[in-house]
Amino acid sequence: MPDQTTARPSERPPTINAAAAARPQRSGVINALRRPDEPRSLFGEILDWMLAPLLVMWPMSVTLTFLVAQGIANPPYDRKLAETVSLLVDHVELAHGTVQLKLGIDVGEVLRPDAAVTTSYMVLGLRGELVAGDTDIPLPVDEDQSPGPPRLRFDKMNGAEVRIAYTWARLGDEPPVLVQVAETLEGRTQLANEIIKGVIVPQFVVLPVAVLLVWLALTRGLAPLTALQARIRRRRPEDRSPIDARGAPEEIAPLVESFNDLLARLSASIQVQKRFIADAAHQMKTPLAGLRTQSELALRQTDPEELRRSLRQIAAATERATRLVNQLLAMARAEHRGAEAPSFEAVDLAALARETVLEWVPQAIDRQIDLGVDVAVDAAQVFGVPLMLRELLGNLIYNALRYTPAGGVVTVRVGRDLAGVVLEVEDTGPGIAEAERARVFDRFYRVLGTRAEGSGLGLAIVREIAEQHDAVVSIHAPARAADPKLPGTVFRVRFAPASFGGSSGPR
């Protein structure tokens, strides 16, 4: 049954909360610092995930640039050191058993020191004596004194780190002579810094521009969402038509579809509520008018016998009104499929049939009808709501008792076949013509020519409950009729295999 506390359509708030829509978008940093219970900004989330890698990659880029710059700055200086060592080796000579450095120009001019670099050299003789140069240059630690191309190493000289190129030169059959050239690292560092500045400085310009472009791109990319939000906010509260997703991003199409599905279910719920109110108002007019007429007539009666007759009619009218109200409420409960709908569970249909038949035995006795139950299986498990299944069977029994004349028979059967669990209610009444069978399940429809009392809601409730349980209800003629004038009717409800065993729920 629809929730009676639900606001009327005219009182419903807009789909999108105006306060939430007016809330400013959070940037990435603000979004990251928000409290856990605060709403999350999609704009801020995307901005975080786009800018965070940039902020992480930028220090890595600076570090890699520094290493690459050092790799670029070292080779030219190393080649210069090696060429200087080779030049000195070419001018080392052995004269009268003495090693001499004979260079036509000043060695300082060969080394060409500048303001950023300090260069020193050393030439050791056959016995390790200093032939020329600076004694502060440390000696190599390797013991390999074979002549060859100049070698390079890093070392310490006067507390400062230097780059040293050295080689061993052999003069005839004499022991090798050591030639070294040392150079401070200021020039290399200065060149590496120039390379780093040439790469990093443009990044300080490019990074803010990239952030600005990302911001503009996000603003432009989320513009369709803003437009969709504005369209939804402009909708009237009673407008529950599907939202047109044209122009919206493809990624939010599932969200729009889900929202449209919610609108459809909301519309269906409201329609059920309106239909219930309209049906109740329409159907209650006649019983209430009859009660008023009978009560007014009883007030004017002076004859006790006539007064009792009026009271009996009032009691009968009250009973019919009560039955009508109960059926309207049952129909509302069956049609309501909201979150408050009862949960499904495993139900023994055979036991439920026995209990329900016992409840209707007194009425069957009053009508002089033989009411019985025939259970062909010990247990017939279905998956459903016991209260709704009891209502379904009760309406079938009530319908059979109303149309079966005195002395007739009404039988409730529960069985099982290859297609599932079968519930049948057979009577020996006048039967239902095939042309009428499709319409007897409509609301308030009654077979023409019938004199039985009723509201025309019982079979509509049966069909609604059957649909809720994925069951199929059908009407058949009995296999044999004892009285040709009373062919009888069989109402059969077949529960599909998926409906029992506890594996499915309400639709």
Please provide a written account of the structure.
Helix content is 48%, strand content 17%. The protein is α+β, with helices and mostly antiparallel strands and 507 residues long. Helix 3 runs antiparallel to helix 5, helix 8 runs parallel beside helix 12 and helix 10 runs antiparallel to helix 12. The N terminus is likely disordered. The longest helix is centred in the first third of the chain and has 49 residues.
Structural class: alpha+beta
Order of helices and strands: HHHEEHEEEEEHHHHEHEEHEEHHEE
Strand line-up of the largest beta sheet: 4-3-7-6-5
- Kindly state the percentage of residues in helix: 40-55%
Shape: rod-shaped
Count of runs of 4 or more consecutive helical residues: 12
Largest sheet: 5 strands, antiparallel
- Using only C-alpha atoms, the radius of gyration works out to 50 Å
How many angstroms does the end-to-end distance come to?
A: 16 Å
Please, how many domains? 3
Number of strands: 14
Mean pLDDT: 76
Would you identify the regions where 5 or more consecutive residues have pLDDT less than 50? Answer: 1-33, 498-504
| % residues in beta strands | 15-25%
Secondary-structure blueprint:
Layout: H1 18-22, H2 28-32, H3 42-90, E1 92-95, E2 98-101, H4 107-111, E3 119-124, E4 130-133, E5 151-157, E6 160-169, E7 177-184, H5 186-221, H6 223-233, H7 253-300, H8 304-335, E8 345-348, H9 349-366, E9 370-375, E10 381-384, H10 386-403, E11 409-417, E12 420-427, H11 434-437, H12 458-468, E13 471-476, E14 489-495
Parallel strand pairs: 9-11
Antiparallel strand pairs: 1-2, 3-4, 3-7, 5-6, 6-7, 8-10, 11-12, 12-14, 13-14
Helix pairs in contact: 3-5, 7-8, 8-12, 9-10, 10-12
